[in-house]
């Protein structure tokens, strides 16, 4: 089952990223981003991409520049997630055949991102927009637009977001925080998958 969840491993190190990712993938989450403000993030992405070819979609978060996109591509990443709308970042990501998920908060940003070639949209910060904000934006978006809620979305409120038309989620601190053990991450991932499967079977 390809669940519409992106695990966000902010702060992870190259030394720990592979065993942590293994447990996340075993739990049933097969999309993983390493934010570029993590320690030696490109090396973590390189290790993940080499270790999980064909098993998971690996890439980067907090991608702010075209140079970042190219570095992630060179490392084998295929997923680009940004906190913002930047047409040059989106266009380069699309040119390289990678998935582009820019952060948007308004209909203006959403339509501009789609026009630039975004794969889907990241409603961010989700806790500021709330499910009501997503529902209102959905009313004007083109049919079939994929929108993930990121920030403020978790197992405790997946149902509210799905009722508001969320297609998926980016999950950060609810699945991983620096210093967590591999077993702790697995327990968090299992709980997230169980909650997700209740609302998006």
UniProtKB/TrEMBL annotation:
Domain of life per record: Bacteria
Listed GO MF terms: lyase activity
UniProt similarity note: Belongs to the KHG/KDPG aldolase family.
Protein name: 2-keto-3-deoxy-phosphogalactonate aldolase
Pfam families: Aldolase
Assembly and oligomerization: Homotrimer.
InterPro entries: Aldlse_KDPG_KHG (IPR000887), Aldolase_TIM (IPR013785)
UniProt KW keywords: Carbohydrate metabolism, Lyase
Keyword Transmembrane assigned: no
Pathway given in the UniProt record: Carbohydrate acid metabolism
CDD domains attached to this UniProt entry: KDPG_aldolase
Lyase is among the record's keywords: yes
């Amino acid at each position: 089952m390809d669940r519409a969840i992106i695990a966000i491993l902010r702060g992870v190190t190259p030394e720990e990223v592979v065993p942590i990712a293994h447990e996340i993938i075993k739990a049933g989450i097969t999309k993983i981003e390493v934010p570029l403000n993590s320690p030696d993030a490109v090396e973590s992405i390189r290790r993940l991409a080499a270790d999980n070819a064909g098993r998971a979609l690996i890439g980067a978060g907090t991608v702010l520049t075209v140079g970042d996109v190219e570095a992630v591509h060179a490392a084998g990443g295929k997923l680009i997630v940004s906190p913002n709308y930047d047409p040059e970042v989106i266009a380069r990501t699309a040119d390289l055949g990678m998935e582009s998920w820019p952060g948007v908060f308004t209909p203006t940003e959403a339509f501009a991102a789609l026009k630039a070639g975004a794969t889907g949209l990241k409603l961010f910060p989700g806790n500021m927009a709330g499910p009501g904000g997503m529902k209102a934006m959905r009313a004007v978006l083109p049919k079939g637009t994929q929108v993930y809620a990121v920030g403020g979305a978790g197992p405790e409120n997946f149902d509210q977001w799905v009722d508001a038309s969320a297609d998926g989620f980016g999950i950060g601190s609810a699945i991983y925080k620096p210093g967590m053990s591999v077993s702790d991450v697995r327990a968090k991932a299992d709980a997230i998958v169980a909650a997700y499967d209740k609302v998006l079977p």
